[in-house]
Amino acid sequence: MKIYKFGGASVKDADGVRNVLHVLQVMGTEDLGVVISAMGKTTNALEDVIASYQDNDAYYLDLIDELHLKHLAVIEGLEMPSDGIKEEWLFRFRESGIKKTVKAIIESLKGEMLRNQSKNYSFLYDQVVSHGELLSTKIVAAFLNACDIPLVWKDARQLIKTDQKYRDAGVNWKETENLIIQSCKGQPFITQGFIGSDNNGFTTTLGREGSDYTAAILAYCLDGTGVTIWKDVPGVLNADPRVFEKTILLNKIPYNEAIELAFYGASVIHPKTLQPLQGKEIPLYVKSFMNPEEEGTVITAVDTIEPLTPCYIVRKNMVFLKISSRDFSFIGEHNISDIFQELSIHKMQVGLLQNSAISFSLCVEDKYAKINELLKDLESRYRVSHVEGVSLYTVRHYDGDAIEFIESGKTVLLKQRAQETLQLVVKE
Predict the structure, then answer these.
(1) For the chain, how many structural domains are there in total?
(2) Per residue in 361-393, is it b (16+ CB within 10 Å) or e — as a string?
(3) Which of 132, 150, 321, 410 is 20 to 30 Å apart from 8, CA to CA?
(4) Domain end marker among 216, 231, 246
(5) What pairs with residue 127 in β-bridges?
(6) pTM above the 0.85 mark?
(7) Which of 212, 231, 250 delimits the end of a domain?
(8) Residue 386 falls within a domain, yes or no?
(9) Do β-strands 203-205 and 226-231 pair in parallel, antiparallel, or remain unpaired?
(10) For the segment 199-213, what is each residue's pLDDT rounded down to a tens digit?
């Protein structure tokens, strides 16, 4: 069985849903499982709902109503005539009762929030944001079924069983595999990305890149022939086209290389998605939903990336720290342990580190705006200098031209070079 995953950008509106239909018509639906994310920006909207709810602001009900209207607009767009859509399909879709289904999901969400007694934000988060995937898959499934694409709607909460670590749940692989085989093997289906449930039946979510992870779980449990992630880019590029003018499409990437790129901050595929696929050597394709017949990129069991070219990753708005002892003594293991404890307390994500005899240098991401608190705590025991607003460049498979290109016109604060990886902290 092959697994397709369509993200929020690919189903953000009626045209996007119609394009999903086009992709399936071109590529075929035999022995297919489809994973769908929430429609574009829906998760953000549901996060706003939670924030309003926690502020004891009844406005959260209005936000839910706005979300309802947004999904009704998608349905109404799909009811309109369009090239390649038969009138009989439109009639079936109009008669499918999808508007009633969406209304029922919206009312269920309101009721769940009115009944909520939990003070646990992560628990509430999972119960609320999961409705985005339920709404999108019901709409897409109804439209595809009306258009002669007979995919059976499956509730991912009945397929993927997890622990109770809400917002980043761990998968119970044995139970999940049994449920997926029993429910999905041998029939085309459509289900939600990102969500599962614990043993008490409460909804859980799978954390960062959760929909990709869902696709990998399904492929692993069903001994899939491949997973395809459909995106608005032609595949995996060697650099972010929003930052670099010239980019190269990577045709093939080894699993380990993709994990390395993700570790350094590239928008590739999260390692947790790749690990189950690598275990069974299931290839992962990244392809354009606008040009489905193009080859795209495959992440698989090859020796090196093809073509072999420098890969550029940039993380902006980082903070550069240089820490030394107050008495100019060596920075030893106990100092490093102490510094890392402070970094953990203040939730800093480390992108680069380098130590010498008397200093310890780091480039960190201040995701939660805690840099001033961190500096205050460190300065009580160490000499600390810092530079905010720096960029961290990472170049895999660098060469002389790549080094010159990155350093040109920039102030280099720190450079670290390994056999395959070059990292530079620069002030631009």
Answers:
(1) 2
(2) bbbbbbeeeebeebbebbeeebebebeeebbbb
(3) 150
(4) 231
(5) none
(6) yes
(7) 231
(8) yes
(9) unpaired
(10) 999 999 998 789 999
